[in-house]
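wait is this the right file?? whatever heres the structure
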């Protein structure tokens, strides 16, 4: 899977609980998907191993990982 330098150098370094495999799973099994005004795409998925909802943001191609984090404010 492709990733931006921000995802590779910042997100993975600051959030060791996030993995690329986890992000692929959230994208493939998203509970909700939203387009952002800038064209990026948000995917929300529940990650059982964390016991939390995770938001994964891709670029507008829907494939290139840009950001990911446990979303404390998400309500399904």
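ok assuming it is, sequence goes like this
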């Amino acid at each position: 899977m492709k990733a931006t330098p921000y995802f590779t150098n910042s997100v993975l370094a600051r959030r060791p609980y996030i993995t690329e495999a986890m992000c692929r799973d959230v994208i493939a099994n998203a509970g909700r998907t939203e387009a952002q005004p800038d064209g990026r795409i948000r995917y929300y998925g529940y990650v059982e191993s964390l016991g939390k909802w995770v938001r994964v943001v891709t670029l507008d191609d829907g494939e290139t990982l840009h950001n990911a984090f446990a979303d404390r404010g998400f309500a399904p």
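Residues 5-14 form the longest helix (10 residues). so i think its the right one actually
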